[in-house]
Amino acid sequence: MVTSSVLYPRVESLSSSGINCIPKEYIRPQEELNNIGNVFEEVEKNGGPQVPTIDLMEIESEDKTVQDKCREELVRAAKDWGVMHLVNHGIPGDLIDRVRKAGQAFFDLPIEEKEKHANDQASGNVQGYGSKLANNASGQLEWEDYFFHLIFPEDKRDLSVWPKTPNDYTKVTSEYARLLRSLATKILSVLSLGLGLEEGRLEKEVGGMEELLLQMKINYYPRCPQPELALGVEAHTDISALTFILHNMVPGLQLFYEGKWVTAKCVPNSIVMHIGDTVEILSNGKYKSILHRGLVNKEKVRISWAVFCEPPKEKIILKPLTELVTEAEPPLFPPRTFAQHLEHKLFRKTQDSLVPRKAD
What we know:
By secondary structure, this protein is α+β, with helices and mostly antiparallel strands.
């Protein structure tokens, strides 16, 4: 086995090589090509559904009526969409700018410098700099490079794989991780109450402060000479409990809502939050883990910073919570560990690429 950097060049090097046609491994199947549009045209469309924006300013207001209204809006968005723009989230704008600048500075390094941080997926070492290895029978690749690392809890980090350049990378990323972990607790509390559960229930079910892992993936989507043929990230749902995403204000995120792809607007000073499979399972489908994907473009590099809040792989059995299961609403999901859920999704993905797709 060899690593991805040997199998295929980095997408960044393909992009900067001056090619006019992308390699066939990056071209999506015909049924996907029918609905890949120009992202800059898509994002300007104002008709139809829009990803909700939730203002968290009053999430802990002393005025109960005001607080309840804020929380109800968050719960409604989690049930209807499973994704939202969070504003007034409590994480300082200057820190978010520094996180963005630090990640950008790493990807601005020459590729040979970034390769010093290369991961080795074949041996199971997923942390570090990488590009996607084809993990399905179709051999499909995505138009992105990335940097992946665990950022919280602090005692579980491996700082040896973190970028050394820029020199404030560890400081700003660590501070962001701490604040994001607190935000996750607030969100999980509201989601618990929205299910009629005790405030701390979902947090406990996903591992609590000791065990819930925050994994950051900086996604780098280079300019693409044929964006109508490729995807930065193929359609998927997140396996996490929650996912928090920053981006560099270049559009690309699309959500599959009510049978159509909806392009998310770029909302200033926001963090995009997804409900992941883990919370969807625990809530017995009341909260949605929405199918989403990433478009690429010819004009601008897109970068996003996704933090996946994941339960421990083996310690917790994920299944619908007992209080949410009735005769009228039986469990929609079988009991699995997080690791088993991940394996199940990868297996299904492989099967889907072998068998002609059927309508649901």
